[in-house]
Amino acid sequence: MASFTSLGVGSNLPLSTLLANLETAEKGRLTPISTQQSSFSAKLTAYGTLKSSLEKFQTANTALNDASLFKSTTATSNSTDLTVSTTAGAAAGTYKINVTQLAQAQSVRTTANVTDSKAAQGNSNEERTLIIKQDSKEKPLEIKLTKDQTSLEGIRDAINNANGGVSASIVKLKDNDFQLVLTSSETGTANKMSISVSGDETLNQFISFNNPDVTGSGVEQIVEAKDAELSVNGINIVRSSNTITDAPQGVTLNLNKITSDVTVTVSKSNDKATTAIKSWVDAYNSLVDTIGSVTKYTAVDAGTDAQNTSNGALLGDSAVRTIQTGIRAQFTDVGNGGNFQTLSQIGITQDPATGKLKIDDAKLKTALTDKSVDVQQLLVGDTKTTGITTKIATQVKGYLADDGIIDSAQDSINSTLKKLTKQYLSVSQSIEDTMARYKAQFTQLDTMMSQLNNTSSYLSQQFESMSSSS
């Protein structure tokens, strides 16, 4: 059987064109599937965008769902020698402060002349225990030392590696004269040190400090442990640290120098609450924009068969409607016993045309200044069942849950896409089989036509030859 490199050569017919046209027609069977795949993929992407926007709103809602925002204060000091900050609940007022003593950490040093910082200072025992006691610690710091760790460097490294509230360093006074310095990591008299060594009397005599079992001492104090001493509105206060967080409560005093007649003023502040409310409104409006984008509808002319291609992928989607109406419902379904029952009463209104929220800054400021507790009740409530942000938090958490409305919709779309992929592959295989059959039939036709043409030519030649002979 003759073979041809191109269909139609043997039959002199446009078989290649016919085959290409048939293939185009067959592949048309894939178009509805591809269209559905594109549509569901667009929906999946749209749900991802919606989920991201909802998560951002959830973050802003969680930040606003904090009662302490409405108890915020700010503090100022008229001196850099004493700086100040506050936490929620600090009482507003003016405080006169005098600092007569700063807290400081104890520091001690060895007194023996040590010519080599690597040389052992203990006896030949294999092991001994360095013990450092501080009243502020329930248990003493106990460090096992080998005989190779009795040098200044060995003791220093062992103490620093223990991270037990004491640090150690080596000071070189001059050539061949070294000292070991131990410093408490924390200030105050409760952190002063007592140092001893068990299992090595030589090392015990070398490094003992404030140890009643040792006569004399190889260690001397170079910085005394002291507590901070100050007065607040005439009340004398003693603390182990220069950072004082409870005098008065909610106010943190940072003592930098001994000073007198410092005035600290604590005032109520609406800044944190205002910022949180504005961020919440911005996040909600961004969510509204996202919903508007994924459900966008563009009207078409009468008689047009298809919808506009710029329509949102989730146009008419029930899950989106559920989320949108569910959140909006919480703006009016308040149910608390405060003076404010609606957002509009504190200066937050909803544009009926766009659905977005907008803030009347002056009205919000007045509400926060005059009735911050009522604003808190409206927005936060009891943090369990009442309060706009409390109820929204529960609702949005459900929307974003693993088995929530968005996750379920995405799972359904993914399942559909898997089915469409399987269907696409099946139809593609069917098209390939059909085209292979067409090609085989066309090739057979081409071969047969070629043979018939050859036979026709041969017979014509024979007839012509017979006519010439006659």
Automatic annotation (TrEMBL):
Annotated source species: Franconibacter pulveris
Record's keyword annotation contains Cell division: no
Any one annotated GO CC term: bacterial-type flagellum filament cap
Superkingdom of origin organism: Bacteria
Residue ranges constituting the Flagellar hook-associated protein 2 C-terminal domain according to the UniProt record: 225-454
Function of the molecule: Required for the morphogenesis and for the elongation of the flagellar filament by facilitating polymerization of the flagellin monomers at the tip of growing filament. Forms a capping structure, which prevents flagellin subunits (transported through the central channel of the flagellum) from leaking out without polymerization at the distal end. Required for morphogenesis and for the elongation of the flagellar filament by facilitating polymerization of the flagellin monomers at the tip of growing filament. Forms a capping structure, which prevents flagellin subunits (transported through the central channel of the flagellum) from leaking out without polymerization at the distal end.
Domain Flagellar hook-associated protein 2 N-terminal span(s) in chain numbering: 11-106
A GO BP entry: cell adhesion
UniProt-listed PANTHER family: FLAGELLAR CAP/ASSEMBLY PROTEIN FLID, FLAGELLAR HOOK-ASSOCIATED PROTEIN 2
Name this polypeptide is given: Flagellar hook-associated protein 2
Entry keyword Secreted: yes
The protein's assembly and partners: Homopentamer.
